[in-house]
Design brief:
about 60 residues, five-stranded antiparallel sheet, about 0% helix, elongated
């Protein structure tokens, strides 16, 4: 089964916010969200997907 997904970016001065939405017949549903905060050290991608939380280190 293929799922139609929509990926959004909101770039600010010190963060990039990312959201993932699933397109379903009854409407659009957010399935994940994340943020990269350029002020934080070490640089990480913080991802929340339902009850799961991931922090992925990034190389700058």
């Amino acid at each position: 089964m293929s799922q139609k997904l929509l990926l959004t970016f909101n770039a600010g001065s010190s963060t990039v916010k990312i959201a993932i939405f699933a397109r379903e017949p009854e409407g659009t549903k957010r399935v994940g969200k994340g943020v990269i905060d350029f002020r934080a050290e070490p640089l990480t991608f913080h991802l929340v997907e339902g009850p799961q939380v991931f922090d992925v280190p990034l190389k700058a």
